[in-house]
DUF1699 family protein (Methanolobus halotolerans), 132 residues
Amino acid sequence: MKIRVVSSREEIPNLNPSEKVIHLAFRPSNRDIFSLVQTCPKVEVIQIPSSYRRTVSKSIEMFLEMQGIKLIEGDVWGHRKDINEYYSVSPALLDKIKELKSEGMSDEEIVNKLEREGKLNRDMLFYILGKK
């Protein structure tokens, strides 16, 4: 699974319309979010750092909810945008999720375990679990 990292609003018009998971590494305005949803109609998740999450307006939260888009907070730790525009979720993590599911662990237990070990936050782990 890949997360598209967008580090400036100038990148939004050039995004691939089929992007599903996007991390905004800048403080987005309402206009930026509308533009992103317009450019990428298949987007399912928008992730922003927790310090920026608090500045998102209620109207944008309602708009995203109506569109069926999850707004989650979190970071892509250790990612270098100058090397790759995508952050890849480790295949080992995906294998670990499958393994824990096969052992009969609940989603909550899996997230609690992997949150401590991995680089992804709870919301992103729940999203990944929902896709598996």
About this structure: The first strand starts at residue 2 and ends at 6. Helices lie at 30-39, 50-53, 58-67, 91-102, 107-117, 122-131. The mean pLDDT is 87.
